[in-house]
Each structure stands twice: as structure tokens, then as C-alpha cells.
Amino acid sequence: MFAVDPLLAGHIGLAEVLIVLLKVVVTFGLLLVSVLFMIWFERKLHADMSNRLGPNRAGPFGILQTLADGIKFFFKEDLLPDRADKRVFILAPFLSLVPAFLVFSVIPIGGVFTEEKQGAVRLFGHETFLQLADPPIGVLLILACSSIAVYGVMLAGWSSGSKYPLLGSVRASAQMVSYEAALGLSVVAVVLLAGSLSTHDIVMSQAGDGFLGVVPHWNVIVTGVVPFVIFVIAGTAELNRPPFDLVEAEQELVGGFHTEYSSIRFALFFLAEFMNTVTMSAIIVTLFLGGPAGPTFFGPDWIWGPLWFVAKLFCFLFMFVWLRATLPRFRYDQLMDLGWKVLIPLSLGWMLLIATLNIARDEDWNPYLVGIGGLVAIFGAYAMLLGAMRTAQRRRAAADLEGSTP
Amino acid sequence: MGYLDGFKVTFNKLFKNTQTGRTVTVPYVKDSGPKRVKPDRIHGRHVLNRYEDGMEKCIGCELCAGVCPARCIYVRGADNPPDDPVSPGERYGFVYEINYLRCIHCDLCVEACPTEAITESKLFEFSFTNRQDAIYTKAELVVDDDGLPQQMPWEDWSDLDAVAAKSSAWVRATAPSGDADYVGVVAWSGELGFGVKPPELGQTAPDPAPEPEAEEPHDGRGGGHH
After folding, report:
1. Which of B5, B9, B10 is best to mutate for the A interface (most A CBs within 10 A)?
2. How many independent structural domains does chain B possess?
3. In angstroms, what separates the C-alpha of B127 from chain A's closest C-alpha?
4. Could you tell me if B11 lies within 8 Å of chain A, comparing CB atoms?
């Protein structure tokens, strides 16, 4: 049983189609504008954090800088390397861009999340959700799109017919595949609690007064913070943003996978990258921070949804820039260690814990006892994992000393 | 919380009124009307100097082209026409071209030049719109009859008066022409070029042409600096 967008329930006429088209245009425009803003915001904030001025030539505070850059990209020479695999080379930027667009369509950006309205808003006399689409597999769509985006990066590097892009794409595929596991496992915790894969239902499950009427009923608290932290870390790695930007490490790989790209093709990658940053922040807000749900104060109640959403989104955009301004890049083995030895075991254990607590709730077991027992089991298992890794390391070192490999 | 101290550092930079958050970048010169004072030794676009009588200093020796790490200079020398010499001496620079798409403004050509023919002005704001304009030929590089650089339409010479006084004819960092007197001394020449600047502290060298009567150890070896 899942909630269907009330607009699409029953008879579908011209008005309904027009409203959906309007939502398509608005979502598209909103995303593009937010990317324009994000690029400017990142450059300006990063400059502020390193005692610089940042863009200040185009428009007030340089706010039109992104527009100027975009126009410049259009007029630059479009290079197609001789050795490139032409078709794949041309296809790759779109493989990055299209998933980035698609993900945003399942993000609820507004709505009145109360008991009686269930997130719906009155638009031109029709009840509807303020999100482009609410498929029952919303979260799966997000994960699938982020997997397809890996192909864009991978194929771009492979088809360039050049060393550095290839190295970049090899790094990209390894990194994105390993962090996707942690990403998916931490989402499962949310899905288990919400009991649905639909983004709307997930937001709906987080609405309401929460504990003691003060602490919000957000998944970040309900799932016990750990999945949230894992999701943010894995999400940053998935975006290839610092400190996980080994894919395009300028000092080592020139430009990484997009070294051979120029002009509008490069702009598409650039656009996709920043669009992914915005959508990833939106996903975090949706899954863990209640999306557009929040208290309403005065005026029409539908206006508070988008406001809450933008406010929460902004915090994460700020966080991503802050991370970039502060942290140095990971070494490659550190990256893999963090992904495989810490994040994946931890998220797997936490998922099992939450599943156990779910069962405990259904079966009327004592939740505290089950929780403590689960935690003990997790830490015990992790201690065993650590011990196994230590032993393996010691044996390897001993074997190296003897000059032979076991 | 040692791991998170870095976040505090970057966050504190956001407060512009504190010492740590102070913006150190200077806005671009044109924001504040008069142009910002340029550093004395800034390397700008080159000029080819002439003597006071109008003769060109370039003798077409191609040393500048030889030393150029970016390979941006192209010189061809030719014999001076006897009835209408371009430079004093045997030969002159017949073709002289600098490609500013390649020039890195390292000033090695200025160091190499034996006659102080090529020097650098303080001009850095010249953005041409096609590749042909980027190649400056002798017609554009040679100073005019007043000893001032020629001004291309795309060059911003609005601070010519201010920088002329700072553009010395020549500053040499090392001993020229193997003259032992100049080891470790920054030699100085106040000869006519684009702008003349008095020597700075430590830049005054002994008289470059020692008397031949004394038996000095370097006598007979020092060649180029007469």
C-alpha cells in the first residue's frame, strides 16, 4: 500500500497533463538555476575560506560568473581527439548528465505534510504532490541513476584514447563501485523504518511532532545517526568531490577523466557534477532530514514546504564546500580502506541492527535489550574482523621477511 | 577533537573583520580608478631600443633567440647597407619577431642581449583577439623617435607616464661577457632605452672600461663591455 499522487488517481484529462508538463518545466528550470547558484556559491565561499575574493567581475558579487562561463564554453573550440573512440566519446557526457537530471524528478520539494493533507498541495484546483514523479521505487531509481552516472565517467576516460583520462576512469570505477555498496546499505536502514521505497512516503514518515514535541522525527535521529554519517561520506565519494576527488586529481592526472574534453562537452560534465552535488544534498535532506516537512507558522501553509527544503538543502551545499575547503585529498589505499574495511562493515552491521529492532517491535520484545545485544554483536564482529586483518597483515609481513609468499 | 580543528580554521576565515579572515587578495587595478603601482621589476612586453641618434641597437646576433626557453623569438641578421646603416656596426636585425602566445616573460633575452637592444616594459595588459596580432614584428617592437614604445590598439598604456620612470634600460643579474670585475655585482646601465631609472642600492658597478696601463689580472680577457 503506497500513496499515489492524487493528481494521477482517477480520470486523467488535459488539465492533469498540463500540470505535469508545468512541473517538468519548473523542475528542470529549478535544477538549472540551482546549479548556476551552486557554482557561484562554491567559488565564492571557497574563496572566502581561503582569504581570497572569488569571482567579482560579472554582475554584483560576480553572480553572473557562471553564466559568463557557460557562454564561453559554447564558443570554445570543440576538440575531438584523433585516437578517441568517437561515438562513445560523444555519448559519455550525456550518460553523466541525464541521470543527474532524472534523480531530481523524484525529490519532493514541497508539500503540506500533515495528517489530513498527506503532502498534497492544491494547484489550479487539483490536489497534487510538489514533486515531478513519485514512483513506488523512488529510492531504487536514485541508486540506479547514480550507478549509470559511473558509466559516463568510465566511458569518458576510456574513449579518450589517452593515459590520464584512462587512469582517472579506472580510479572512478573502483571508487564509485565500492562506495555505492555503503551508500546502498545505509539507505536500507531508512527504507526499513519508512517501510517504503517511495520518496514521498519516506518524507511523510518523518513528518509530525517527533519526540517530546521538540526533537524532530527525522531519520537522522530515528536510525541512530550512523547511517546518516555513512551516507554523507559515501555520497561525497560518489560525487567525486574533495576529499574523494582522486578521479580528477589535478596534480596527478591533469584533469582526470575529462582531460580531453573541451567546449560544450566539458560543460556537460561540469554541469552534471554540480547538478549531482545539488541532487545528492537533496537526497540527504529527503532521506534523513524530513525533506520539505516542517512546522508551518503564518501565511499559506504550502509556502513553508519549499522554504524548509531550501533551508535544509543549503546547509548541505555549505557542508560540501566546507569539506572541499578544509580536507586534503585521500591517498588511494586510504580511500579503499575506508570504503571496504570501515564503511561497508559498519553499514551492514547497522542495517542488521535496525532490522532486528524492527522485528523486536513486531514481536513485542524488549527493545533496549535487543538494541544493546545487537550493538554488542556488532562490535564483537567488528573486533573479529579487525583481528583477522591484523593476523593477515602479520603473516604477510612474516612471509615478506622470508622472501617468499605463502 | 584534533580531527575537526581544520574545519574551525576554514570556518573562521569567513569572518572578514578578524585578522585571520582578512582578505589578502587585492582587487584588480581598474576597480579603484588610478592604476595600481606596478612592481619595479615586473616583466612586461618587450621593446627594441634605439640610440639617441635614431640608430637601432639590435645587431642581429640572435643571442636572444638562442637563449629563449620558449622559442618565441625569431631573428635574422643582415649586413648594414653602407649608405644607409640601420645600426652602428656591421650587421642589424633584419627580421625580429616575438610570439606572445609563447613568451613566458622570463627576461633571459634581456640578459643575453650584448647591446641592450631588447628590454621589457611594464605592460602586461595586452589581450589580442587573433593569433596574428600575437606575433609582434620589428615594426611594432621598435621604440618611436621619442624613445617611447609604440602603442597597439589592444594595449593598455594608460599608465605610461608612471611606469616610464621605472623602466630601466637594463638590469643585469650576473657578470656580463666574462668580465671578472662583474662577478657577484649586479651591473647597471643607464643608457637610453624605454625609460631610465637610477641604480638601486648595490647595483653600482666599478667603471666598466678599466684603464689599460695597470697590469690587472683580467686584462685582455674582458671582452664585451666597452
Report:
1. B10
2. 1
3. 16
4. yes
On chain B, the residues whose CB falls within 8 A of the CB of A322 are 7, 10-11
The answer to whether residue B37 is domain-embedded is no
B160 within some domain: yes
Domain range spanning residue B154?
Answer: 46-189
**Do A281 and A320 form a contact (C-beta atoms < 8 A)?**
yes
Whole-number pLDDT of residue A231: 92
Higher pLDDT, B219 or A290: A290
Check CB contact under 8 Å for A51 and B22.
yes
Check residue B184 and give its pLDDT. 56
Please give the pLDDT value at position B215: 44
> Is residue B168 predicted with pLDDT exceeding 70?
no
B14:A52 CB<8 A: no
Alpha carbons A246 and A121: distance in angstroms, whole number: 43
| Residue B67 reports pLDDT greater than 90 | yes
Q: For A53, which of B10, B13, B27 is closest by C-beta distance?
A: B27
Phi and psi, residue A61, nearest 5°: 55, 20
Pairing mode, if any, of strands A120-123 and B170-171?
unpaired
Count of pairs with CB atoms under 8 A, one residue in A, one in B: 36
CB contact under 8 A, B7 and A326: yes
Cα separation of B26 and B40, whole Å?
18
Q: Which residues of chain A have pLDDT under 70?
A: 1-4, 6-7, 115-116, 119, 209-214, 403-406
List strand residue ranges (DSSP E) for A87-141, in order: 120-123, 126-129
The pLDDT of residue A232 is 92
CATH number of the structural domain spanning residue B72: 3.30.70.3270
- Residue B7 grid coordinates: 574545519
